[in-house]
Amino acid sequence: MVKIASSTQTERRGNSEELADEGAEAEFKPLTVAQAQAWRQNNPQASPWRVLGLQVGVGVLMVLLTGLVTGDAGMAASVAWGSVAVVIPAVVFVRALNRQMRRTQPGSALMGLMVWELVKIALTVALLLVAPKVISNLSWFALVASFVVTMKMYWLAMALGLLQQKSKPTIF
Which of 55, 78, 149, 151 could form a disulfide with 139 if both were Cys (CB 3.0 to 4.6 A apart)? Predict the structure, then answer.
């Protein structure tokens, strides 16, 4: 008769072998000041202001093209309001985010981030709700289309590498 080990015994042996293998790996070594500076220079922080600039530029371009192609001021105003409904809340959020980055307590910074994200969403919804009162000849299709295009500039900026600041060349 063959005796088969239970699954818990096999798992225990497997886990102890894995732990032994992990102990054999090199331990974590902190970077020196020079290494940290070199890493920061090669991996600069992303700038949200670049995305906002791209969103504003695309919004203005869409308004101009819509005005030139259709000649309808209501359509151009709808396109403009769609872009504004993305850009204004994003500006408020980025300013708040810059202030949150200065906080030393991570829990406080995270809570502030969540609160400002809710403010951003509420402001966006409010801007969309008042659109029919502000624009007399509102085109919801144009508003939503420009809203989506302006919002998707995050992806275009990321794809084009516009989020990364250009690092200065160094000579070693």
Answer: 78
